[in-house]
Structure formats: structure tokens, C-alpha cells
Design brief:
- The chain has helices at about 20-30, 60-65, 80-90, 105, 110-120, 145-150, 170-195, 205, 215-220, 260-275, 280, 295-310, 315-320, 325-330, and strands spanning about 10-15, 30-35, 70-75, 95-100, 125-130, 200, 230-235, 235-240, 240-245, 250.
- The relative contact order is 0.10.
- It folds into 2 domains: about 10-205, Rossmann fold (3-Layer(aba) Sandwich), CATH 3.40.50.10540; about 230-330, no CATH class.
- The protein is of the alpha/beta class.
- The protein is about 35% helix and about 15% strand.
- The two termini are about 45 Å apart.
- It has 14 helices and 10 strands.
- Strand 7 (about 230-235) and strand 8 (about 235-240) form a beta hairpin.
Length: about 350
């Protein structure tokens, strides 16, 4: 537990992997989160890799990473007695989290109407690919389906190749955070109304947000954006975001703003610990830094210094006089920065 902000709030977590993070975040905020598993345990417990390499339901890294700050019980919700026990627990709970398809809980007598009748203050949060209503509500969908339907996949990858998804299911993480925030707002609303409500999180809708302004720009200009590989357009420049390293690649942005400047400052300090931060780099005033106002030569200078640290092959002094690592130097064709 990282906070006691939700101390006294009890949450029944029925979720599969798409909702694990929501329960974890709420537990980290102090809620008493009870993970409800089937009698033979959640299938995620059997997903490799396992801590220490030993296959064990308590050592799955997926399970360990996303289910801390929770207690656990087992219930057979496909049996009458299991449903009775769950409804009894729901009468004393504040929130139920679930990821089953629209209508599935109701078909077993555990839907919103039943839960609300038994406990009018209860909040039911559903996390599904396309939400509880609308023409796609009954559609099944994986992370890949959702990321593609959101438009996020279209813009991810190299311009001369097919789109690629992230190695981790990012829609589950974006959706999980949206669900946690939605639950907190529903709890606040309950203080005023005395009533619980449904929180409907569509993963496809949640994944529109990472597209930033692309969806709105398409309506205004007809431009859909483009895949630019390891780079991004910023102002009138092209800036690297995926950097080659000795054993693979690392994602690191030159972007500024309150959320990212602390990372830039920390990275320069880390480089300095290893003797790889030049005096010029250490002298930058990061408080006034704005990546949108950089010129391409300024971007290239930063790229050489950070690139030399991520994949060290020379001193920072030698790197500062080496050739540019812009897309042109790497043989990549990019759209105009304004796109």
C-alpha cells in the first residue's frame, strides 16, 4: 500500500488480465481489494515467465507484477452456492471490478440490476474491449484488436513496414488506469448522492487518448498521421525516441514538459556519474527547455550525446563531433514535421 486515501473501501476484483492493474492501483491507494479467483486459481498464475524459472502458480511474473496490494479468495461463480456467497460479499462491498463480456454477469444473476438492488451504494466497474453499449458491445477483442481499432496501431512502426504493437498489452494498462480513476470519481459522487453507479470502460476508447491529437486532426485536415519508426516530429525538427543499445533498444524522449523534464535531468545526472555528460549538456537550463523550439542542429547535438551513452562506442567529446543521427543519416524517409 502506497497511500491510505481509500482506507475503508472494500473492492471485489473479478477481473481477468485486462483489469488487473485497476485493482492494483486502487489497492495501492489503500482500498481493501479482494481478488476473487475460480477454485483452481486464476489462469494468469500459470503464465510464464516464472520468478526463478520454477513453474509455480505463486511465481508468475505477470501475476506478481499486477496483483500486489490484494487479498484473495476462491469462488465457483458458475455454481449456485458460489453466486450466493458472492452476492453476500457484494452487499458489504463498495466496488466490484469485472472484465466479462457485456451481459455475462447478468446472465448468471450477478448483473447491475441485481447488485444495485442488493446494495444501492455499490459501484460496478466493467472493463471490456468496446464497452457495455453500442453496436460493438458484444464483440470479443484482444489487446491487438483494441489497439488496432483505436488507430494507435496504424501510427506505430516503421514507414516501410506493417504496423506493430507494443510487446506488452498497453490497452490493458491504459484501460486499467482509466477504470481506477473512474472508480474514484464514482466514490466521490456517492458522497453527494448516496447511490452507486456503473463505470463503463471501453479499452478501444481508452486507447484513443495515446494518439494525442491525431483523431481530432483527421476530422479537421484529413491527415491520419504516419508511421515514423524510431523518430517523431516536433516543431520543425525530427527527434529520435527509440535508441539502439548494446543489447537491444531503449525508449527515451527528448520531449519536455512537467512530466518529462525530471527524466531528462535524472538521465544527465546518471550520465555524469559515468563520466559521459559533457559540460555543454550539464549546462542546459532544463527549467526553460522546450523541445518544440529546438532547431535541427540542436536536436542533432543532443542526439549524439544521448546516443553515445545508450550505445557507448566513443567518449562524449568524440560523439559531439561525429555525424548526425537524424533519420536522413540513418536512411529513413519521414513525412514533413508538420504532420
Amino acid at each position: 500500500m502506497l497511500s491510505d486515501a481509500l482506507s475503508g473501501i472494500r473492492i471485489l476484483d473479478l477481473t481477468a488480465e485486462p483489469g488487473f492493474l485497476a485493482g492494483k492501483v486502487l489497492g495501492d491507494l489503500g482500498a481493501d481489494v479482494v481478488k476473487v479467483e475460480p477454485p483452481d486459481g486464476d489462469p494468469a498464475r500459470r503464465r510464464p515467465p516464472f520468478w526463478g524459472g520454477a513453474a509455480d502458480p505463486d511465481r508468475s511474473l505477470l501475476w506478481l507484477a499486477l496483483n500486489t496490494s490484494k487479498r484473495g479468495i476462491t469462488l465457483a461463480l458458475d455454481r449456485p452456492r458460489g453466486r450466493e456467497l458472492f452476492l453476500a460479499l457484494a452487499e458489504q462491498a463498495d466496488v466490484v471490478l469485472q472484465t466479462e463480456p457485456a451481459g455475462s454477469l447478468a446472465a448468471r444473476g450477478l448483473g447491475w440490476e441485481t447488485l444495485h438492488a442488493r446494495n444501492p451504494r455499490l459501484i460496478l466497474c466493467s472493463i471490456t474491449p468496446f464497452g457495455q453499449t453500442g453496436p460493438r458491445a458484444a464483440w470479443r477483442g484482444s489487446d491487438l484488436t483494441v489497439v488496432a481499432a483505436s488507430g494507435n496501431l496504424y501510427a506505430t512502426g516503421d514507414p516501410d513496414r506493417a504496423p506493430v504493437r507494443c510487446s506488452l498489452p498497453v490497452s490493458y494498462y491504459h484501460g486499467g488506469l482509466e477504470a481506477a480513476v473512474g472508480v474514484v470519481f464514482a466514490l466521490l459522487a456517492r458522497e453527494a448522492t448516496g447511490e452507486g453507479q456503473q463505470v463503463d470502460v471501453a479499452l478501444q476508447a481508452a486507447m484513443v487518448m495515446p494518439n494525442i491529437g491525431t483523431a481530432a486532426m483527421f476530422r479537421m485536415t484529413g491527415q491520419r498521421g504516419a508511421r515514423v519508426g524510431a523518430f517523431m516530429s516536433a516543431g520543425r525538427t525530427v527527434q529520435r525516441e527509440i535508441w539502439p543499445c548494446k543489447d537491444g533498444f531503449v525508449s527515451f524522449a527528448l520531449r519536455g514538459g512537467p512530466a518529462r523534464v525530471p527524466g531528462l535531468i535524472a538521465m544527465v545526472a546518471y550520465m555524469d556519474e559515468h563520466g559521459m555528460a559533457s559540460e555543454r549538456l550539464k549546462a542546459i537550463d532544463w527549467k526553460t527547455y522546450n523541445h518544440n523550439l529546438l532547431t535541427q542542429p540542436e536536436v542533432d547535438a543532443l542526439t549524439r550525446e544521448f546516443g553515445a551513452f545508450f550505445a557507448p562506442s566513443s567518449s562524449p567529446h568524440a560523439a559531439s563531433s561525429s555525424t548526425s543521427s537524424t533519420p536522413a543519416a540513418a536512411g529513413c524517409a519521414l513525412p514533413a514535421p508538420s504532420r
